[in-house]
Amino acid sequence: MSLADGLVLPSAPGGRPARWAATGRSGGASRPPYASLNLAGYVGDDASSVEENRRRVAAQLGLPADQLCVMDSVHGATLAVVDAPGVVPGVDALLTQRPGLAIVALGADCVPIALVGSDGLTVAVVHCGWRGLVADVIAVAVRALRDHGAQVSTAVLGPAVCGSCYPVPQERAAQVVAERSAAVAAMALVTTSDGQPGIDVREGVAARLLELGVSAHAIERVGGCTVEDPALFSYRRDGITGRQGVAVCTVDSPGS
Ligand SMILES: [Zn+2]
């Protein structure tokens, strides 16, 4: 069902393994234009279809259907610490230390990101578009993990629009240059085939993670360009459409 999933074994004594999954369009219950694995409740899709889709993601992680906490993101840099299932509005990052609770970030061109803590206890998810890159939601999440005693041992960057498919006004590129380092701007800013400035948000996120001390081998990219791949949801391509995402949780043991 998912594009990819993985198990991250704990590096700290007493830590738990973490499971993550990154989803695309396939394997869900929603009908067009949300077909089929839409995980967002705010895009106009039938609520029972969204519930069924979320149940399938929970099942893939080995969890009961209701053990998901999803955010309705707003392109800001606010993080919520959660310990219960549900929907959290108005934030772009979630962090939990509750075993068996999956937290979920959604997107359809923006980057959904899962961060696994080195303590085998703390996990976080982030939604990041160009505004999140400028607002530095990535640093907010990495520092929140550190405040909870964990380094980032794995960062899963889900599908997102590539720089060639994301031309932007010059002022927007200038904002990235103004707010982020030269290293991040160099990775994030591209020139599209017709000579316009473009932003590759996912590469900008990766560069920001490196800058924050996450090692290159800890960063895993899943899926390709949302605009180019019809197997992925893309708001830029389709307008009214669903949202894919990444989910992460800690579990009792690799077999649980
Ligand atoms: Zn593309």
The 3D shape can be described as: globular
Rg estimate, integer Å: 17 Å
CATH homologous superfamily, by name?
CNF1/YfiH-like putative cysteine hydrolases
The helix content is 10-25%
Q: What is the spatial order of strands in the main beta sheet?
A: 1-2-14-7-3-5
The number of helical elements comes to 7
Outline the secondary-structure elements.
Blueprint: E1 4-8, E2 18-22, H1 47-60, E3 68-72, E4 79-81, E5 86-89, E6 93-96, E7 102-107, E8 111-117, E9 123-128, H2 130-135, H3 137-147, E10 152-157, H4 170-179, H5 182-188, E11 189-191, E12 197-199, H6 201-211, E13 219-221, H7 235-238, E14 244-250
Parallel strand pairs: 3-5, 3-7, 4-6, 10-13
Antiparallel strand pairs: 1-2, 2-14, 6-9, 7-14, 8-9, 8-10, 11-12
Helix pairs in contact: 5-6
The protein binds zinc ion (ZN).
Features:
six-stranded mixed sheet; alpha/beta; binds zinc ion; CNF1/YfiH-like putative cysteine hydrolases
Task: Walk me through the structure.
The protein has one domain: CNF1/YfiH-like putative cysteine hydrolases (4-Layer Sandwich). The model has no long low-confidence stretch (mean pLDDT 96). It is built from seven helices and 14 strands. The strands form three sheets. It has a six-stranded mixed sheet with strand order 1-2-14-7-3-5, with helices on one face. Strands 4-6-9-8-10-13 form a six-stranded mixed sheet. It has helices at 47-60, 130-135, 137-147, 170-179, 182-188, 201-211, 235-238; strands at 4-8, 18-22, 68-72, 79-81, 86-89, 93-96, 102-107, 111-117, 123-128, 152-157, 189-191, 197-199, 219-221, 244-250. 25% of the residues lie in helices and 26% in strands. The chain is globular, with a radius of gyration of 17 Å. It has 256 residues and is of the alpha/beta class. The longest helix is centred in the first third of the chain and has 14 residues, at 47-60. The structure holds zinc ion. Zinc ion is lined by residues 161-162, 164-165, 225, 227-228.
